[in-house]
C-alpha cells in the first residue's frame, strides 16, 4: 500500500489520503453467488422457498457492496461477510438492536470524578 | 491509569453470549456490568440471567413514562439497574436460562438471587473518567451506534463518519493504547467492547473501536454499577 500524507507533523488527526490495493471484497462481489452458497452453509441459513432464497441473495450482494464502502471509510477495521449479511439494515436494526432513547432523569446519580494520575 | 487494561485478564468477564434474533442487547449489557461488579464484590464470577430482565423488567424512564424496558423490543441499562435494585437482584443464568423470546411469564424466584445491586450511576462524557471508572468499578454498560457493526469482522473500527444516535447496548471491558490506525499514520488507542451476538461475530464476539472522539457515541451513555455481597 502507498500512503500519501497531507498533514503537517504536529497536526494529530488530520485526514490523509490513503491508496490501498483492491481488497478481496472485489473478489467477493464478483463471485457473490458462490460466496452466498458458502455463507448459507457456514451459518446454517434456511429460506422458505426459492423466492426467499433469491431475495436473500440480492440482499447479500447489496451488503457486500456496503461492506466495501465500510472498508473504504473504516480502513483500520476489516469489513466483509458476517452472519448478518443476508439482512437489510432495517431488518438488522429491528432484530438485533434494542437500545431505547436515553432521557436521563434530573436526579440520576452521577459517578464521582475519579483521580486519573497515579 | 494503566496504559492497557482488560477485565478479561482479571477474570471479571463471562463468555460471549448470543441474544439471537431479539432486541435484548440492553439486558446483556446490564448483566455483563453486574457480573463484573459482583465479581469485584465477591470474588466469584457468576453468569447472570438476561431472561429475568426480558420477562420481568418493565421499568419505565421516569422522564418519559411511555419509554419502558420491553423484552425483545428494547430497553435501557439504567432502567434495568433500577429494576434489579427494586427486585432484589438477578438469578443465575442456569436457574433462569435465556430463550430469546419475550412471550413467557416472569418466573423470577426471589430465593435464588445470585447478585444484587447496591447502587448505579452514570459516568461523565470524558474518556479519562470512563477509563478510571472502568478500572475502579469493573466493566461498564455503554450504548453505541451499531451501523458499522453489521459488516465488522475484526481490527480497530475507526470510521470517518458515524452517527452518535445510540441504538445498541454493549459492555465496555477494557482498552488498549496502540490499536492499528493506518490512516492517521500512528497507533491509536481503542476501547474493547463485549457484544452479545455470539463468538462467531467480530473478534470472537468482541469489537474494538477507537478512542478519542466519542466515535459512534460510545462515550455518551456510560453507566457503572456496584454489587453487594448476598448469600442466597
Summarize the structure.
By secondary structure, chain A is mostly helical. Chain A contains four helices and three strands.
Description:
The complex is a heterodimer of chains A (118) and B (232). Chain A has 118 residues and is mainly alpha-helical. Chain A is 42% helix and 8% strand. In chain A, helix 1 runs antiparallel to helix 3. The longest helix of chain A has 24 residues, at 50-73. In chain A, strands 1-2 form a two-stranded antiparallel sheet. Chain A has helices spanning 24-30, 32-42, 50-73, 89-96; strands spanning 2-4, 17-19, 77-79. The relative contact order of chain A is 0.11. Chain B is of the alpha+beta class. Chain B has helices spanning 25-42, 50-56, 77-87, 127-137; strands at 5-6, 60-61, 64-68, 90-91, 113-123, 140-144, 152-157, 168-179, 188-194, 206-210, 222-228. In chain B, the strands form two sheets. In chain B, strands 1, 4, 5, 6, 7, 8, 9, 10 and 11 form a nine-stranded mixed beta sheet that branches. In chain B, a hairpin with an 8-residue loop joins strand 8 (168-179) and strand 9. In chain B, helix 1 crosses helix 2 and helix 1 (25-42) crosses helix 3 (77-87). Chain B is globular. In chain B, 56% of the residues are buried. The mean pLDDT of chain B is 93. Classes of the chains: A mainly alpha (118), B alpha+beta (232). Strand 3 (77-79) of chain A pairs antiparallel with strand 7 (152-157) of chain B.
Amino acid at each position: 500500500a502507498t500512503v500519501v500524507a497531507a498533514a503537517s507533523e504536529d497536526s494529530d488527526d488530520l485526514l490523509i489520503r490513503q491508496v490501498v490495493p483492491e481488497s478481496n471484497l472485489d473478489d467477493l462481489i464478483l463471485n457473490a453467488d458462490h460466496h452466498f452458497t458458502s455463507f448459507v452453509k457456514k451459518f446454517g441459513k434456511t429460506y422458505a422457498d426459492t423466492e426467499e432464497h433469491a431475495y436473500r441473495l440480492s440482499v447479500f450482494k447489496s451488503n457486500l457492496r456496503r461492506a466495501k464502502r465500510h472498508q473504504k471509510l473504516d480502513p483500520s477495521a476489516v469489513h466483509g461477510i458476517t452472519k448478518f449479511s443476508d439482512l437489510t439494515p432495517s431488518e438488522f436494526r429491528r432484530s438485533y438492536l434494542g437500545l431505547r432513547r436515553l432521557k436521563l432523569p434530573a436526579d440520576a446519580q452521577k459517578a464521582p470524578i475519579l483521580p486519573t494520575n497515579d | 491509569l494503566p496504559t492497557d487494561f482488560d477485565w478479561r485478564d482479571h477474570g471479571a468477564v463471562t463468555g460471549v453470549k448470543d441474544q439471537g434474533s431479539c432486541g435484548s442487547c440492553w439486558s446483556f449489557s446490564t448483566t455483563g456490568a453486574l457480573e463484573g461488579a459482583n465479581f469485584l464484590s465477591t470474588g466469584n464470577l457468576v453468569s447472570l440471567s438476561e431472561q429475568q430482565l426480558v420477562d420481568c423488567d418493565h421499568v419505565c424512564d421516569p422522564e418519559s413514562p411511555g419509554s419502558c424496558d420491553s423484552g425483545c423490543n428494547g430497553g435501557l441499562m439504567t432502567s434495568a439497574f433500577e429494576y434489579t435494585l427494586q427486585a432484589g437482584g438477578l438469578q443465575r443464568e442456569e436457574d433462569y436460562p435465556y430463550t430469546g423470546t419475550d412471550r413467557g411469564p416472569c418466573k423470577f424466584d426471589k430465593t435464588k438471587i445470585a447478585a444484587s445491586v447496591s447502587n448505579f450511576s452514570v459516568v461523565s462524557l470524558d474518556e479519562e473518567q470512563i477509563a478510571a471508572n472502568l478500572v475502579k468499578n469493573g466493566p461498564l454498560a455503554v450504548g453505541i451506534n451499531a451501523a458499522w457493526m453489521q459488516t465488522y469482522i475484526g481490527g480497530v473500527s475507526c470510521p470517518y463518519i458515524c452517527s452518535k444516535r445510540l441504538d445498541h447496548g454493549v459492555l465496555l471491558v477494557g482498552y488498549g493504547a496502540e490499536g492499528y490506525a493506518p490512516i492517521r499514520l500512528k497507533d491509536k488507542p481503542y476501547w474493547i467492547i463485549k457484544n452479545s451476538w455470539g463468538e462467531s461475530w467480530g473478534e470472537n464476539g468482541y469489537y474494538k473501536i477507537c478512542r478519542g472522539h466519542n466515535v459512534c457515541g460510545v462515550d455518551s451513555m456510560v453507566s457503572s454499577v456496584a454489587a453487594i455481597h448476598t448469600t442466597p
